[in-house]
Amino acid sequence: MTRTTTSTTSIYARRIGVLASAAALASLTSLLTAPAAQAAPPAPLSAAAARSYLATVTPRPEGSTSGYSRSLFPHWSTVSGTCNTRETVLKRDGVGVVQDSACAAVSGSWYSEYDGATWTVASDLDIDHVVPLAEAWRSGAGTWTTAKRQQFANDLTRPQLIAVTDNVNQAKGDLDPGKWLPSRTAYRCTYARMWVDVKQYWALSMDSGEKAALDGVLAGC
Question: What angle do CA 95, 101, 107 make, to 5 degrees?
Fold first, then answer.
């Protein structure tokens, strides 16, 4: 009986050891094959915080684009060395990005959150101003100094800049959420939070259609 018990215990111990080794191997394999974390802009305020802020907003008619010019929002500014804001965002938002001595992205992979496309050539991407420059002008930036507009156009601290498919960015143009939202519906909540975050920080106004669209998106977040 003693020998049988010892033998059985030994068999169980070996089985437990094998199972533990298998579990460890599976865990390691999972870590090695897991996709790389998706690079992204700074996290926007929460949906709850965005809804709370919107509740305090009194819509105002959108201003005029009279006098507007992109040159009044100087970009892309030098961030460090030879790297400007565009190249900094491409590095931040991409995976495996390699830059040359002039800081230009020569290889890498970029996932465009707006439409779900993946690109491996940097020229296929635009850096979108989430709140477009012309929209900002109509919402209050027209009264700012050029220095403040430059800060806005190169804002890396807020979720204002994001690398996306170039023709998607061009189709968006200067439209607000009442007229344009990302075709990838899974990103609309994040986009609305980004928009509200930027407008709140920069104290930019909202018109009624814009506010209603944001309310509608955030209600489902």
Answer: 30
